[in-house]
Design goal:
Number of helices: 20
Largest sheet: 6 strands, mixed
Helix content: 40-55%
Radius of gyration: 27 Å
Structural class: alpha/beta
Shape: globular
Number of strands: 9
């Protein structure tokens, strides 16, 4: 609710960020996806989990202990293991990652919650009521429909609310199994956070947090049989409000041919996307990832269907070596001459067979002039004892070692064990000065004064400078890394011709 974009500076109350989030197509589409996944996984989990709970709670049969243990597994096994196991399963089954794979994975871990809650409800029900109904002439099905089901209703509603909440909030498992059309709101938020926390993210997170709190509260009241009509009405109102918020955006290009772009957050503007859509009468679906390694993992499954990916320099070489990229038809790229010569024929793809540079930046030093008291000049400034507990470093071992090696006058690509060992010792000596290792919110830390001087990526600090001229940025005198992100077409892309047009359009 802060009118300032800087979280640490209060500039008055505002609803502006909620309005901006409402108008953000990517956020609204992600919320729609989250809600649809949550509704479907809740319905399927309740339909499958209820008879499972009745079987386990009312009957004895061979293998019951094993069945019981299976329902505990999704709860006790770490989510990252569940996510990895799920994506491996989909890969072996040849099931394309996308919306359906997300729903299936959510059902797999949600069904346990239904079984636990419904069994708990069964434990406090008097079975003699069903027996009495059948003694009075009701068939087993009638007894279930007219006696058992009404008595189970509080448990069923409670289980449904719990599953809906868990599904709506899940990030870890979803990040493994999401593919084309499967970007949920938590994935969208996390990808946006990688380029800095914005007030829009805070607003969306607040809505999600409030909704989650209400649903969990009502679920607990139902389980304790203390929920009145007001509590249930509140839960229904929250679900309807979420649905209403999801309708806030606009959908473009329904029914047209679709290009799927898998890219970093904040790399494409809405204006660029709209112009390409109008020119070629297509719909562009933008999906986000938060690391090169996440991109590699998805493409290695062989069950993704992206048309364009944008890996960083070193990852292009890895993807090409693993046969995960298509060779580019240079005849279709009539605008490739627009590239600056410096960025053509780079070492990771010397003939540009697989990649076309998209954007570049440096890893240098961001600092607050007013707090540091002078201009930063080189990597040695990050080892200055005067800045104890106010130094920031990126959460990236490659960049950390690069800074230490350049400070020592060595190549940041050194493979000499002695030079690397000296760099390791230098980083260990620096550690007491470091307040945070952070690759996500280092620019915000500069704006708030949480850190005074930090290893930084140029793009995020440029945004910080635009907000506060007291922030500065320098390429260290010893040199620094230059990163280049590149447009590539993954192997098996369904719309290769459209992908080439998109690359040519971006070059234009």
């Amino acid at each position: 609710f802060n009118a300032s974009r800087q979280m640490a500076v209060w500039s008055g109350f505002t609803w502006e960020w909620y309005a901006r989030a409402w108008e953000n197509d990517a956020v609204i589409q992600a919320l729609r996806t989250s809600l649809l996944v949550a509704f479907l996984s809740t319905a399927i989990s309740v339909l499958l989990g209820t008879p499972a709970a009745l079987a386990l709670g009312r009957h004895r049969f061979r293998g019951k202990g094993i069945a019981d243990a299976l329902f505990y597994l999704p709860v006790v096994v770490p989510e990252i293991v569940l996510g990895f196991a799920s994506v491996v399963f989909f890969g072996l089954a040849g099931w394309r990652l996308g919306f359906a794979s997300v729903v299936a994975a959510h059902v797999a871990f949600s069904i346990s919650y239904v079984v636990f809650v419904v069994r708990a409800r069964l434990g406090v029900m008097d079975p003699r009521l069903e027996e009495a109904a059948m003694d009075l002439g009701a068939s087993p099905l009638e007894a279930f429909a007219r006696v058992t089901l009404p008595l189970l209703a509080p448990g069923l509603v409670s289980a449904a609310l719990l599953v809906f909440t868990v599904s709506l909030d899940d990030y870890v498992v979803t990040s493994f199994v999401a593919g084309r059309g499967g970007t949920t709101l938590p994935l969208q938020i996390y990808s946006m956070v990688r380029t800095g926390v914005t007030p829009e993210i805070n607003a969306v997170s607040t809505v999600l947090l409030a909704a989650t709190f209400v649903l969990v509260f009502v679920s607990q009241r139902l389980q304790a049989e203390r929920a009145g009509r007001g509590a249930v009405a509140l839960a229904v109102a929250v679900v309807l409000a979420l649905g209403g918020f999801a309708v806030g955006g606009t959908t473009r290009g329904e029914g047209r041919r679709e290009l799927s772009v898998y890219i970093w957050s904040s790399y494409l503007t809405d204006e660029m996307v709209r112009e390409f859509e109008e020119r070629y009468n297509v719909k562009v679906r933008v999906e986000l990832y938060d690391s090169n390694e996440a991109l590699l993992a998805k493409l290695q499954t062989g069950v993704t269907s992206y048309d364009i990916v944008v890996p960083s320099d070193y990852m292009v070489g890895i993807l090409a070596a693993n046969g995960l990229l298509e060779e580019l038809d240079r005849r279709e790229l009539t605008n490739i001459a627009n590239l600056a010569p410096r960025f053509v024929g780079l070492p990771f793809d010397p003939e540009n067979r697989y990649s076309v540079p998209y954007g570049w930046g440096t890893s240098g030093i961001g600092y607050r002039r007013d707090l540091v008291g002078r201009d930063a000049t080189g990597w040695e400034d990050l080892w200055d004892p005067a800045f104890r507990d106010r130094v920031g470093m990126l959460n990236d071992m490659r960049e950390n070692f690069g800074a230490a090696l350049k400070r020592d006058g060595r190549s940041l690509n050194s493979t000499d064990p002695d030079e690397i060992a000296r760099a390791a010792r230098a980083l260990a000596e620096q550690k007491p000065l470091v307040r945070t290792y952070d690759s996500d919110t280092f620019a915000d830390n500069l704006l708030t004064g949480e850190v005074w001087i930090t290893q930084s990526y140029s793009g995020q600090v440029a945004r910080a400078i635009a907000e506060d001229p007291r922030v500065g940025y320098v390429v260290p005198k010893e040199g620094c890394t230059v990163f280049v992100d590149n447009m590539c077409i993954p192997r098996g892309a369904p719309n290769r011709d459209l992908a080439l047009r998109f690359i040519n359009y971006m070059l234009e």
